[in-house]
Amino acid sequence: MPIYEYRCQDCGEKFEKLVRGNSEQPELACPNCGSKQAQKLLSPFGTRGFSTTPNLSSSSPDLCRPSG
User: Are 17 and 7 in contact (CB under 8 A)?
Assistant: First the structure.
């Protein structure tokens, strides 16, 4: 279930709302003033990165050993 960010058109309060998958338009009310005039905001999202590059800052002797 995604969490969306909204901004109240009346007082400017920014708030979040957990939205269930089946609901098309969630019931919104500003927690600050109770207004139902809210605009959905564009929010950045987080991802978990994965790197196949070894950590070259480690002190592993195998990384410094010449090959051959």
Answer: no
- Tokens at 33, concatenated: 């003033």
- Report if residue 11 sits inside a domain: yes
Q: 57 lies in a domain?
A: no
Q: Which tens digit of pLDDT belongs to each residue from 25-48?
A: 778 899 999 999 999 998 776 667
CATH code at 16?
2.20.28.10
Give me the number of domains the chain comprises: 1
pTM over 0.85? The answer is no
Burial grade of 38 (CB within 10 A; 0-12, 13-18, 19 or more): buried
